[in-house]
C-alpha cells in the first residue's frame, strides 16, 4: 500500500492532467450538439460491434447443440412422413388411420434414428464412417444410413454405443437404384477417385438417359426405402459391343461435409427376409 501511495505522489501531475482532460472532454460533449451527436453515434457503433461479436461467439459455440436438436427434429418428422408407412387396405381401423385416411390402415415401416458422425474418410479406396449410436439404440447390421441430401452407406459393425458404416465410397458398396423418370433399375458403385462421382451400371441401351436425370433408391432392398436421392447423371456412353450404358453420376451427398446422419430401421425387415428366403429356397 505504501508503494502505491508513493507511486501516486510521484505521478500526480500525470493523473491531474488526465482528470482535467476527461473533464474538458465531458464539458465539450455536453455543451456542443454536434460533438455530442458524434460521440453518441460512435459509442453506439462501438458497443453494438462489441455486442455483435459476443453474440457471434455465443452462437458459434451453441451451433453444436442447435445442429443436434435440428437433426433429432428431422428424424422425428421423417418418422411421421406418410411415404415411410406401409399401406394396407382392409376393414381394420386403428388410431393411426386418422392421420391419413379413414378407409386405409397405414403401418409404420421405417423408423429413423439421428446420429452424430464422429469419424469419416473419403480419400481411401475403401472408406468408412463411424456414428455415435449402436445396439443400445436398436441399430443392427445392414441398416441403411442417409443424410437429408441422400444416401451415405450401410451399417457394417455395431457395438453398444457406436456403429461402423460401409460408405458408398467403398469397392464393396452396391446400391440398388433406378432412374426416377422411367423406373429402370440399375446399381450404383464407386470405382474410386473423386468422392462426389459414382457409376450407375446395368442400364440397358434401349433406355434413353439424359444428363441431369435423378437417380434414387429402388426400394428393392431392405436397407433403403424407395425414393431416397442418390445423385444425378453427369455423362453416359456406350462402349462398342456393350449392351449397357457406362453412366457417371454426381452423388447428392457431400461425403466431405457430413456432421449428422439418419439410420433407417426397417421394422418389417424380419418378415421380408423370411419371405425372400422362402423364394430362394423354392
Describe the structure.
This protein has 282 residues and is an alpha+beta fold. The protein has 2 domains: 15-66; 81-267, Rod shape-determining protein MreC, domain 1 (Thrombin, subunit H). It is 32% helix and 28% strand. The longest helix is centred in the N-terminal third of the chain and has 48 residues, at 33-80. It is elongated. The termini are far apart. The relative contact order is 0.12. The model is unreliable at 88-103 (pLDDT under 50).
**Terminal Cα span:** 98 Å
CATH superfamily of the largest domain: Rod shape-determining protein MreC, domain 1
DSSP helix count? 4
- SS class: alpha+beta
Overall morphology:
elongated
Uncertain segments are 88-103
Major sheet: 6 strands, antiparallel, barrel
What is the number of E strands? 14
Under the CATH scheme, which class of the largest domain? Answer: Mainly Beta
CATH topology of the largest domain: Thrombin, subunit H
The helix content, as a percent range, equals 25-40%
Give the strand content.
Answer: 25-35%
Rg, nearest Å = 31 Å
Mean pLDDT: 78
User: What is the domain total for the residues?
Assistant: 2
What is the H/E order? HHHEEEEEEEEEEEEEEH
Read across the widest sheet, the strand sequence of neighbours is 3-4-7-6-5-14
Q: Tags for this entry?
A:
Thrombin, subunit H; 6-stranded antiparallel barrel; single chain; 282 residues; alpha+beta; 28% strand
Write the topology of this structure.
Elements: H1 2-10, H2 12-31, H3 33-80, E1 85-88, E2 105-108, E3 110-120, E4 128-131, E5 144-146, E6 151-158, E7 163-167, E8 175-179, E9 185-189, E10 197-201, E11 214-217, E12 229-237, E13 246-251, E14 260-266, H4 269-281
Antiparallel strand pairs: 1-2, 3-4, 3-14, 4-7, 5-6, 5-14, 6-7, 8-9, 8-11, 9-10, 10-13, 11-12, 12-13
Helix pairs in contact: 2-3
Amino acid at each position: 500500500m505504501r508503494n502505491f501511495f508513493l507511486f501516486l505522489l510521484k505521478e500526480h501531475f500525470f493523473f491531474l492532467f488526465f482528470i482535467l482532460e476527461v473533464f474538458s472532454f465531458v464539458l465539450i460533449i455536453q455543451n456542443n450538439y454536434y460533438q455530442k451527436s458524434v460521440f453518441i453515434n460512435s459509442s453506439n457503433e462501438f458497443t453494438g460491434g462489441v455486442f455483435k461479436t459476443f453474440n457471434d461467439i455465443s452462437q458459434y459455440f451453441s451451433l453444436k447443440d442447435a445442429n443436434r436438436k435440428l437433426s433429432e427434429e428431422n428424424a422425428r418428422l421423417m418418422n411421421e412422413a406418410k411415404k415411410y408407412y406401409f399401406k394396407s387396405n382392409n376393414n381394420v381401423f386403428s388410431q393411426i388411420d386418422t392421420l391419413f385416411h379413414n378407409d386405409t390402415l397405414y403401418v409404420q415401416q421405417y423408423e429413423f434414428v439421428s446420429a452424430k458422425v464422429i469419424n469419416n474418410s473419403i480419400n481411401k479406396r475403401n472408406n468408412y464412417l463411424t456414428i455415435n449410436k449402436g445396439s443400445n439404440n436398436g441399430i443392427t447390421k445392414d441398416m441403411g444410413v442417409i443424410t437429408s441430401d441422400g444416401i451415405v452407406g450401410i451399417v457394417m459393425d455395431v457395438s453398444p454405443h457406436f456403429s461402423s458404416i460401409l460408405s458408398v465410397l467403398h469397392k464393396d458398396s452396391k446400391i440398388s437404384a433406378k432412374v426416377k423418370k422411367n423406373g429402370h433399375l440399375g446399381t450404383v458403385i464407386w470405382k474410386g477417385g473423386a468422392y462426389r462421382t459414382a457409376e450407375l451400371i446395368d442400364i440397358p441401351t434401349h433406355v434413353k438417359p439424359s444428363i441431369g436425370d435423378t437417380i434414387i433408391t429402388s426400394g428393392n432392398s431392405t436397407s433403403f426405402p424407395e425414393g431416397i436421392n442418390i445423385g444425378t447423371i453427369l455423362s453416359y456412353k456406350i462402349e462398342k459391343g456393350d449392351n449397357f450404358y457406362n453412366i457417371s453420376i454426381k452423388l447428392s451427398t457431400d461425403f466431405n461435409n457430413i456432421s449428422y446422419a439418419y439410420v433407417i430401421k426397417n421394422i418389417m425387415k424380419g418378415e421380408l427376409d423370411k419371405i425372400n428366403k422362402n423364394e430362394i429356397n423354392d
